[in-house]
Write a structure and sequence with these properties.
514 residues; Rossmann fold; phosphoenolpyruvate carboxylase, domain 3; six-stranded parallel beta sheet
Length: 514
């Protein structure tokens, strides 16, 4: 049986489902949807090897949203393909444009962010004529004006032998968004696999999902009442003004409304429009405070109130802080903060981690939390009870706090070498990065996004039985977020399997290498 000469078969043994997916992806522009850890990158490598064999003088381009991911992909490709190491080139904006132009002429497989490729094509540094395959990692981002969309359009105009492969763990649970991703990438075939598929089952282990509930203490409920009263007051004004039609409005709807009113104010400078804009902004701020109280705790809420105090430039902020209900909420929040009262999730989290590390000394755990302040608090509390924990956050933002890419890689390497037990991560730990498989994933709070939920869960249960624990506060948005993500995921899978049925391809990789 013929083998692809550019694949290093000493290091890889393709799985059946990867062969099925690759057999589609070598023929059609394909959207490949696989859970985290199930080998999307290997599918891409197989397709790349085939295209280089079919078009020996061609080149391959892989784009990914971040530089750490770009470097990670180059490392994986160069390790698993039979080509000189000099043929694999990762490009960044730190390389002078003239030098990049030289690299483009000498390399074979290129790895870069879409923004870099977009700029280089538009500035005539890069011509995509010779590229026989473009691989789009985390392709669920291929919507609206994100650079992926522009890169694809340039590619299709310039390439003599274009082929597109999109990779993602989840493109989203809304049909319109999935269709937008497909349209942006000119997708002709959808290949989806989940842990339930017959050709995937031999390679996955059971993942036990647990929901651990806590009660919101009376002191926190009292603060929530103050905040809700202030919130309802703003919503009632918006309903009366016919800007919203129900008191049951989501934060996203309020943010969209704020944009629309803002556009209206730019055109009219009308006093009542300004009042509407201010009222909507107040509602958003108070809604955010309620969310912090319910899902995060007193420390995060107190810090948010302090931030509002420091930024009184906007009328909306001043009006919020002058509301008697908010004044009471701030007063009681400060009192609880001074007393060291925290959200009951923290105590529950410490108990779970302590039991897990006592049971297995080299256990590996990831705790996901939405806010950096929560990550910092969790890591410090774990360290205070002699649990080896490290923070894993994104790069520096306005406050200057954050991890440089080099620091992120060092932390992941130390985690892989079992130098500490618990990685406490924000969303930066969800997408793409090469984080070792763990024994336990803990959601400090559920997320309403099915994409993020799938990515977080995918950090466990690959080669051995894994556990996922959701910490949920009863009677709060935690419950709503959990079930929102659950139903979106079910809906997404149904839509994608229906799309897949329309373009079934029953060949395997072996059919075209014989």
């Amino acid at each position: 049986m013929k083998q692809l000469k550019f694949l290093n078969y000493e290091k890889i043994k393709p799985r059946l489902y990867q062969e099925f997916i690759a057999s589609t992806a070598i023929e059609k522009n394909t959207l490949c949807i696989l859970p985290t850890g199930m080998g999307k990158t290997l599918v891409a490598i197989m397709v790349a090897a085939y295209r280089l064999e079919k078009f020996p003088d061609s080149k391959i381009l892989m784009v990914a949203p971040t530089r750490p991911l770009v470097n990670q992909h180059m490392k994986n490709f160069s390790n698993l393909m039979n080509l000189e190491k000099t043929e694999f080139i990762a490009l960044t904006g730190k390389i002078h444009p003239n030098d990049r132009k030289v690299f483009y002429s000498k390399g074979k497989l290129f790895f870069a962010t879409p923004q870099l490729i977009e700029n280089d094509v538009e500035n005539k540094i890069l011509d995509l004529n010779d590229y026989s395959l473009i691989i789009i990692d985390e392709c669920h981002r291929s919507v609206k004006k994100y650079a992926y969309t522009s890169v694809i359009e340039h590619y299709l105009k310039q390439s003599s032998h274009p082929l597109i492969l999109g990779l993602t763990a989840s493109p989203g649970g809304i049909k319109d968004k999935i269709e937008e991703v497909k349209k942006s990438l000119h997708i002709e075939a959808v290949e989806i696999r989940t842990e339930q598929d017959y050709d995937v089952q031999p390679y996955v282990q059971e993942t036990k999902i647990e929901r651990v509930y806590v009660e919101l203490p009376e002191e926190l409920k009292r603060i929530r009442t103050y905040l809700e009263q202030a919130y309802i007051k703003r919503l009632e004004w918006l309903v009366t003004s016919k800007l919203i039609y129900s008191m049951k409005v989501t934060k996203r709807e309020l943010l969209d409304l704020q944009k629309e009113i803002g556009k209206m104010y730019e055109q009219t400078r009308d006093f009542m429009v300004a009042k509407a804009l201010t009222t909507c902004a107040q509602a958003i701020k108070i809604e955010h405070a309620i969310g912090l109280l319910e899902t995060q705790g007193i420390t995060q809420l107190y810090k948010y109130f302090l931030d509002l105090e420091k930024n009184k430039k906007s009328m909306a902020t001043r009006n919020v802080l002058n509301d008697p209900k908010i004044i009471n909420a701030i007063k009681e929040t400060k009192e609880l903060f001074v007393k060291g009262i925290e959200h009951p999730k923290l105590e529950k989290l410490l108990k779970i981690v302590k039991e897990e590390t006592s049971r297995k000394s080299n256990t590996k755990i990831i705790v996901f939390a939405n806010y950096r302040s929560s990550v910092e608090k969790i890591a410090k509390l774990l360290q205070s009870i002699n649990i080896q924990a490290r923070e894993f956050i994104g790069q520096a933002v306005k406050d200057g706090k954050g991890l440089k890419q080099k620091e992120q890689i060092e932390i992941l390497n130390e985690f892989g070498y079992e130098l500490f037990n618990v990685l406490v991560a924000t969303a930066v730990g969800e997408e793409g990065l090469d984080i070792q498989e763990v024994d336990l994933v803990i959601f400090y709070e559920p997320v309403p996004s099915e994409i993020r939920s799938i990515q977080r869960r995918g950090r466990t249960g690959r080669t051995k039985t894994g556990r996922v624990i959701f910490l949920i506060t009863k009677g709060t948005r935690d419950e709503g977020y959990f079930w929102s993500a659950f139903h979106k995921e079910m809906k997404m899978k149904k839509i994608l399997y229906e799309m897949k049925e329309k373009n079934m391809n029953k060949g395997t990789l072996m059919d075209w290498v014989k």
